[in-house]
Amino acid sequence: MSSDAGKVGGYPFGDEKGKAAERAQGGGSLRHVANWISVSRIVLLVVLVGLVFTYENRMAFLILYLLSGLSDVLDGYIARRTHTESNFGARLDSVADLLLTAVILSACFSWLGEDLWTFLPWLCLIAGIRVANLVIAACKYHVFAIIHTWGNKLTGLLLFVAPLFIGLGALALLWPICLIAAVAAIEETLIHLTSPTLDLNRRCLLGRSAVHR
């Protein structure tokens, strides 16, 4: 009788540890894919910041802009499916989120024209709270960080479509974005002030992280 009798895939029947190791090894082959996608998004966003002021072809900008958004969805999906979510990946996302904000603000300043003055007080308020959050995180946790709350994720989604609203002339739709962005920023401030440790994946003020490492 073969020594492999009673085995499935090289593991004895009921050997859950062996099966788990096999699954982990399979996930390991994609271990860094999500992070590399995040890095590529960071590079693309740096290019987009320059294109806002130096390249007048808005269609080309829009295509690259949508690609950056697609990569944001893709890296999160891969990380969850392969169980390779990590604090390092979360930090890469934080850098990409900051650059995305820079791209959006650059587009707003460039395309809104005189209408910018209507929204400028809100932009300054939100930016001020965000900067304060970074300072609080740096002083308390010794690292610059943006927490990936549901509020921040919703803000990111709405900010992402803001240039499309501006392009369509639907400026009234920018007011709800300003309100939600302000509330999300204040929520992050409260999390920093009340949390003893940094939890980048915390979902809301009253919630806990979906990932613990």
Describe the structure.
- The model is unreliable at 1-27 (pLDDT under 50).
- This protein has 213 residues and is mainly α.
- A hairpin with a 2-residue loop joins β1 and β2 (11-12).
- A two-stranded antiparallel sheet has the order 1-2.
- It has 7 helices and 2 strands; from the N terminus they run ββααααααα.
- It has helices spanning 16-28, 33-54, 58-81, 87-112, 116-141, 150-168, 174-194, and strands at residues 7-8, 11-12.
- It has a single domain (16-194), classed as Four Helix Bundle (Hemerythrin (Met), subunit A).
- The chain is globular.
- The longest helix has 26 residues, at 87-112.
Number of helical regions: 7
As a percent range, the share of helical residues equals over 70%
Structural class, judged by helices and strands?
mainly alpha
The major sheet is characterized as: 2 strands, antiparallel
Strand order within the widest beta sheet: 1-2
End-to-end distance, in Å? 45 Å
CATH topology: Four Helix Bundle (Hemerythrin (Met), subunit A)
Beta percentage is: under 5%
CATH architecture level-2 label: Up-down Bundle
Low confidence ranges? 1-27
Query: Using only CA atoms, what is the Rg?
Result: 21 Å
What is the strand tally? 2
The backbone outline, from C-alpha atoms, is globular
CATH class: Mainly Alpha
Mean pLDDT: 80
Count of discrete domains: 1
